[in-house]
Amino acid sequence: MLTDRQSRISLLARTNYSRRSAGQFLSELSPILRRQLTQDSLLPIDASDSFRDGSLHAYQHGMSTGENFYRTQQPTQDFDRVESKVAKLCQRIGAEPAILLPTHFQPCVRITVSEVLQRTKSVLEFDRDTLLLSSVDGRCGFMLDWNPDDVEWTYELAIWGAKWVGERP
């Protein structure tokens, strides 16, 4: 367990690293999303940590209870099924503001659902193997995980929260 001082030092170090690498991250993500992202698009590290913790908790809660939770796994050859389900979700909630939780960059990014879900495969490749979104209020989430080592179930798609789950995709 970290002491309060250690936690503050860790937060400061992660914040400084993020400031140094933000320009490159934003310049790589902007063309994928087809919009110029700026420093204002980034959340502070402590807020990003809260979104990550909340999303993990909500995913685990959904897995254990099934409440307002949808999950499917698909093999590689059925990625078109994944894209179809993502497209249906995007049609329902596409314009809604959301938070992108990158796996290889500390700060989260303010975005709209459609900006990410209309380019699912490109964002998934950019983010290395997991695409994770959260609603701005943290009550809903979306995860697409690519597991190239699992030949049976290569893709896992999970959606949680009453508003985003809605009717099953």
In short:
Helix content is 49%, strand content 19%. The chain has 169 residues and is of the alpha+beta class.
Could you characterize the architecture of this molecule?
With 169 residues, the chain is an alpha+beta fold. It has one domain. The chain has six helices and six strands. The protein has helices at 4-33, 45-65, 79-93, 113-117, 120-126, 162-165, and strands at residues 69-74, 97-100, 109-112, 130-135, 141-146, 155-160. It has a six-stranded antiparallel sheet, sandwiched between helices. A hairpin with an 8-residue loop joins strand 2 (97-100) and strand 3. The longest helix has 30 residues, at 4-33. The N and C termini lie far apart (41 Å). 28% of the residues are buried. The model has no long low-confidence stretch (mean pLDDT 85).
Biggest sheet, spatial arrangement of strands:
1-6-5-4-2-3
Rounded to the nearest angstrom, the radius of gyration is 16 Å
Counted by DSSP, the helix tally is 6
Helix content: 40-55%
Low-confidence runs: none
Q: What is the strand and helix layout of this fold?
A:
Layout: H1 4-33, H2 45-65, E1 69-74, H3 79-93, E2 97-100, E3 109-112, H4 113-117, H5 120-126, E4 130-135, E5 141-146, E6 155-160, H6 162-165
Antiparallel strand pairs: 1-6, 2-3, 2-4, 4-5, 5-6
Features of the shown structure:
169 residues, six-stranded antiparallel beta sheet, globular, alpha+beta, 6 strands, 49% helix, 6 helices
